[in-house]
TrEMBL record:
<keyword id="KW-0999">Mitochondrion inner membrane</keyword>
<comment type="function">
    <text>Inorganic ion transporter that transports phosphate or copper ions across the mitochondrial inner membrane into the matrix compartment. Mediates proton-coupled symport of phosphate ions necessary for mitochondrial oxidative phosphorylation of ADP to ATP. Transports copper ions probably in the form of anionic copper(I) complexes to maintain mitochondrial matrix copper pool and to supply copper for cytochrome C oxidase complex assembly. May also play a role in regulation of the mitochondrial permeability transition pore (mPTP).</text>
</comment>
<dbReference type="InterPro" id="IPR018108">
    <property type="entry name" value="MCP_transmembrane"/>
</dbReference>
<feature type="repeat" description="Solcar">
    <location>
        <begin position="71"/>
        <end position="155"/>
    </location>
</feature>
<dbReference type="InterPro" id="IPR044677">
    <property type="entry name" value="SLC25A3/Pic2/Mir1-like"/>
</dbReference>
<keyword id="KW-0809">Transit peptide</keyword>
<keyword id="KW-0813">Transport</keyword>
<keyword id="KW-0812">Transmembrane</keyword>
<dbReference type="GO" id="GO:1990547">
    <property type="term" value="P:mitochondrial phosphate ion transmembrane transport"/>
</dbReference>
<feature type="repeat" description="Solcar">
    <location>
        <begin position="168"/>
        <end position="252"/>
    </location>
</feature>
<keyword id="KW-0677">Repeat</keyword>
<keyword id="KW-1133">Transmembrane helix</keyword>
<feature type="repeat" description="Solcar">
    <location>
        <begin position="269"/>
        <end position="347"/>
    </location>
</feature>
<dbReference type="GO" id="GO:0005743">
    <property type="term" value="C:mitochondrial inner membrane"/>
</dbReference>
<dbReference type="GO" id="GO:0005315">
    <property type="term" value="F:phosphate transmembrane transporter activity"/>
</dbReference>
<keyword id="KW-0472">Membrane</keyword>
<dbReference type="Pfam" id="PF00153">
    <property type="entry name" value="Mito_carr"/>
</dbReference>
Amino acid sequence: MYPSSLLALSGGNPFNAPRFQLLTEPVSPRTRVANEAAPPAERVVPRRRLAAAAAAPAITEEYSCEYGSAKFYALCGFGGVLSCGLTHTAVVPLDLVKCRIQVDPGKYQSIFKGFSVTVKEDGIRGLGKGWAPTFIGYSMQGLCKFGFYEVFKNIYGELLGEENAYLWRTSLYLAASASAEFFADIALAPMEACKVRIQTQPGYANTLREAFPKMHAEEGLWAFYKGVSPLWMRQIPYTMMKFACFERTVEALYKYVVPKPRDSCTKAEQLVVTFIAGYIAGVFCAIVSHPADSVVSVLNKEKGSSAVQVLKRLGPLGVWKGLFARIIMIGTLTALQWFIYDSVKVYFRLPRPPPPEMPASLKKKLGLM
């Protein structure tokens, strides 16, 4: 038997758990000798040790940082850099054709016509025009979009309180995403202006190194920020739909489609749900933001035009040119972005709260307990 003082000391150990409790039941010499000679599966285990093992809690997932910490927000921002920068760069050919359909629908009449004309005039390499400003601009946008979304969602949630944050969670997602996108578009605007100029104005510039100084010499800093207001018109509704629709779709999938709770799903199964919810959200995003996207494309191509002038000239039908191409592009983009972002969280072992549940205090108020 161990001294009682030693047992008391072990009980006060902050690392104390049933798996690490000292053995308090004596083992006879005969049993000890038999255990040493027997294979592991046939060894005798004292009853108290068996009871302790049975009562041991399941091993909980360990996180690399605390939810809402500076490290958490930094890694979320890094996930945004990868998710937006890589995906937007990967679909540059489709984005190029989409922009050309918007600014010159007579020449680029459809997706397939746009691709064939572009390859005929510029070759296969012509489909990659604008990749550098796309990668830089959307990496900066992703950093602000996803990083600030987590910041604002946490801040607004604390201001509302636990019960109101649950009841008004859709409004919470909308407000947090709109706030994040406001700053994200300021970071994106200069590179977006360069990208559109390279893609839609043949002969102007072929690379970012050519376009940036040329635009600055001709129009000054205004050349890079004249499209920020249309960007807000396009991106803020898009991002509000992207985050709110995604969050509620994930909640609905786990509630009505997935046959088990998220905690019981493997990481791979959770990422599949993320991808499906992301694609559904992306389709709605494309539809909501397409008119403003058409204005941005035309505005950044031309000199001296305003967003209102471009909108009047395009008319109610013209702003929908290239919608099909954008649905394919944005649906795929949004799904991949959420997949990459969630994969980064899994890889770095960041806290990933499950779909929201009604707080116990609210259930009590509503008589559900």
